Amino acid sequence: MFSVLAGLGVAGWSGIASIGVILGGTAAWQSNRRRKARPTAPGKGETAQYLDGGDEPPVQIPEEMSAWEAYKATIDKRVKNFAKARGSVVLKIVHHEVDEYVDTDTAIEAIDLIRNAPENAPIDVVLHTPGGIASATQQILHALKHHKGPKTAFVPYRAKSAGTMIALACDEIVMGTSAVLGPIDPQYAWMPAPILADLTRQKSADRISDEMMILSKMAQQAVNEARRFSCDYINDAHKRDGTCDLTNDLIGGGRNHDYPILPQEAAGFGLNISTDMPELAYGICQPPPKDDPVLIVSMFNTQKEEDGEAPSKPVFR
Fold first, then answer.
1. pTM of the model
2. Considering 61, 214, 239, 311, which has the largest number of Cβ atoms within 10 A of its Cβ?
3. How many domains does the chain have?
4. Are residues 183 and 128 in the same domain?
5. Which helix (H) or strand (E) holds 316?
6. Residues 6 or more apart whose Cβ sits within 8 Å of residue 94
7. Do residues 126 and 187 touch, judged by C-beta distance below 8 A?
């Protein structure tokens, strides 16, 4: 063992020392960044700048509160202030991560909030979502339709797919000037259901596998169901002469599912649209803090290297 250590020589020990210094410096830098980024408790006589105070006293951030906890307290405070300013019950449907969308949990939260609201209370739905599951969306639409009070959807940034359908269930849609809605065509087996349903009309049965034939038939069912329940639940304030033309167009109008419908185009569809977006609605939809990337440097190369081959690169995770 001693011979191995001695064999490293001055150059070897110098390299190890340099790596140690780099790792120590990187760790210190990361720690300092987190400390500076994490909201801390305000000093004596100061207020927490991280939070919107509104007419309420600002939330004090304890020293031990994490960035995520401070973020959640901030959003909760903004929702409370928004509800107070509007005299409404606020339903927040906000999704940021790729695995977040309108699902069963979203439906349960929405149903419980709406059913516990006073009978004629205004409901404000703050939406920021890529879409979600049709069955869960239909439950939310049903709860909104049967609430007697006025319903307003606020879309600061985006409400695509199922989010658009939830917005259409409200009496009025307030959009940010650069916000987007989208088509409401269902997606089946990760494919656009209207296009998949059309497969059996584009190709003869002998040129379609049994599996694709079944998928095409089920996609047609999904389209039929979407046409029916979207027309049933769209608010009368957005219907063209009481017909289903609007929802049929948003389902089968030939647009890509990710097509962005800006406020001007939405108004052209006949939707009851406003762009008078309250600033707090933007604040409610702000994304959570992100984890800092960590640089991992291996001190010892575990990969077998051929003569003349460059050593392995550092790994970023």
1. 0.74
2. 61
3. 3
4. yes
5. strand 315-316
6. 126, 127, 128, 129, 284, 285
7. no
